[in-house]
Design brief:
Blueprint lengths: L1 H26 L4 H28 L4 H21 L5 H12 L2
Helix pairs in contact: 1-2, 1-3
């Protein structure tokens, strides 16, 4: 029973990261190229994640075997969430500073 839950946790962690990246790509224009690259990488490993989940169900693998991957996916999702809250006004700051200097 633990391996079924573990497999579900892996898929859920992967899905959280994938959705966070997709959302951030739409909300953060400054990092679109990087986020699109991450999204592409996740697309390419999706089949491997599915295979791991299926093998865990079949082989009743131990939780520690995929726990580090789950932890990394969750860390990535938290980082994407944190970074998507940062306001990037670099150009606006430079413009405001230049406009004040010319007054």
């Amino acid at each position: 029973m633990g391996s079924v839950v573990q497999g579900a946790a892996l898929g859920a962690a992967f899905e959280l990261l994938f959705v966070s990246i997709a959302d951030a790509t739409q909300n953060i224009a400054h990092f679109n190229a990087d986020l699109n690259r991450l999204e592409s990488i996740l697309h390419s490993i999706k089949l491997a994640i599915d295979d791991i989940e299926n093998f865990n169900k079949i082989l009743e693998g131990q939780q520690h075997e995929t726990q580090s991957l789950i932890d990394r996916l969750l860390e990535g999702e938290k980082l994407i969430q944190k970074c998507s809250k940062v306001k990037w006004n670099c150009c606006e700051r430079g413009y405001n500073r230049l406009s004040h200097e010319h007054r």
